[in-house]
Design goal:
With 181 residues, the protein is mainly alpha-helical. Helix content is 49%, strand content 5%.
């Protein structure tokens, strides 16, 4: 499960510490996670953590670092584990759902418009992976409707699709790695 980061800023750390000390002393025992969040919010002048969260975009420090392109969501991070630094699929995922998602990162690497012989597709798939089974990739691309072929398997063509929105960061990062590598 991904976690949303909320930067915390206080203009007066001394006042924050005093308020936290008073609130902690008034609590029964060690406060829990939510109680600590509420204490921090109250020390910053809000009613509770939810009130602080609602106002968080305007309450952040002016020099809060912005996320870089290197930071990815949890899905993209999980799927990128299957690709090496050059953007090649280095292992076939065990989970079926991850197999399907990784195919989307390989699909743009196939020759585009027009029909191509089996050798051309095989060459493209050999370059897209390092685990030594381009035939598996070719078959799975056909099974998932990303690649089509004639009944005699001599002619292939890439089918036109729009990459699902949640997989676009994966496809972009794999493409970036391939261009850099």
């Amino acid at each position: 499960m991904s976690r949303t980061l909320h930067p915390f800023y206080s203009p007066d750390i001394s006042a924050l510490a005093r308020s936290l000390k008073q609130q902690w002393a008034a609590s029964d025992g060690t406060p829990g996670h939510l109680q600590l969040l509420n204490m921090l919010a109250r020390a910053s002048g809000y009613h509770n953590f939810q009130h602080w969260l609602a106002a968080a975009p305007t309450a952040t420090a002016p020099d809060t670092p912005r996320p870089t392109l290197r930071q990815h969501d949890a899905l993209t991070q999980r799927l990128l584990r299957h690709f090496n630094a050059q953007g090649c699929l280095q292992r076939w995922p065990k989970k079926y759902s991850e197999q399907q998602q990784c195919l989307w990162a390989i699909w743009p690497q196939l020759p585009g418009r027009g029909q191509h012989g089996e050798a051309v597709i095989n060459d493209a798939l050999r370059l897209a992976q390092t685990f030594g089974d381009h035939v598996l990739l070719r078959r799975e691309l056909v099974n998932h409707g990303l690649l089509a072929r004639t009944p005699d398997c001599r002619v292939y063509w890439r089918l036109d699709h729009v990459v699902p929105a949640e997989l676009q960061p994966l496809v972009a990062e794999v493409s970036r790695r391939r261009q850099a590598g």
